[in-house]
Specification:
This protein is of the alpha/beta class. The chain is about 40% helix and about 15% strand. The longest helix has 27 residues. Bound molecules: 5-S-methyl-1-O-phosphono-5-thio-D-ribulose. The site of 5-S-methyl-1-O-phosphono-5-thio-D-ribulose has 18 residues, from helix 2 and strand 9.
Length: about 350
Amino acid sequence: MNIQHIQFKENQLVLLDQRKLPLAVEYITCTTPEEVAEAIRTLAVRGAPAIGIAAAYGMALGALLGRDPREVAALLGSTRPTAVNLFWAIERMLSVIETSAGAEAAVREAARIHQEDIAMNERIGAFGASLLEDGTAVLTHCNAGALATGGHGTALGVIRTAVRSGKHLTVFIDETRPLLQGARLTAWELQTENIPCYLITDSMAGYFMKQGQIEAVIVGADRIAANGDTANKIGTYSLAVLAKEHGIPFYVAAPSNSFDLSLGSGDHIVIEERNGAEVREIAGVATAPPQVPAKNPAFDVTPASYITAIISEMGVIRPPYEENIKLTLSGAKERMRHA
Ligand code: MRU
């Protein structure tokens, strides 16, 4: 995908407005941490790695404006609670801003976080592509593509790499209510690259699995606990249960900064609750009585026992997760130290 969805130029953060896709390709410009926080909160930029990158640039903008880094960190950290990448990026920026001389170093660090994310996704793509045989029909949920990351994508990155290596895949895209990231963003990305796909409503997944038309599921992650339990877009858990019932492999693709080893299990992951209005309407058009109470958890947690493998930039992690995640990620830390 050639589009530049996150750019930092002339001390401004320019973001492709993902709320408008696919109907319009429009950009917003952020010059303050407040504007970046608003862009994250309202999903103009979304997807765990992408919000981490945007927050890193938000921290850099704060440094350029001579703002108190702790206050900026608190502001950006208050936007969305579930994706750990956000907090990881803010912490990394804080340690640079508080120890280094000047805002330019902060801008360089944010750009480094951005570039590293793309490189991690390429590696995830290479590891993950080896798991998908030529001719596989794969289901994905939400958008874990280039738009959700620095570029290339995690779950879609695996699909992209497999297709580039000559494999013929067919992608089933869950539309992903309430905000339709699958229909609006994943379908747009796949169409742009002519990757064969079918858009389905979320409730159709079980039907196609039972028919034998879906042979693998691959999704991204917002936070992975030490035992492998994985938070991702609401609806992911249902897919994992369905996949297990039908004997279909269920893969999670995520970089090492999506893991939160401070949490023993997914029970401790904070799930973002969004406004019920998002459930009562589609693209701003009411589809329910205006007063009907609605619930709107943005994510759910898939227990590790439903996950066939987690694809990270350090390799493919299989059960027992507790042990193998630690082993794999200690390798990631070692690599960072020598980088
Ligand atoms: O609410 P969103 O659109 O930010 O949710 C995004 C997801 O759930 C993605 O699957 C996840 O962040 C991984 S993106 C590589």
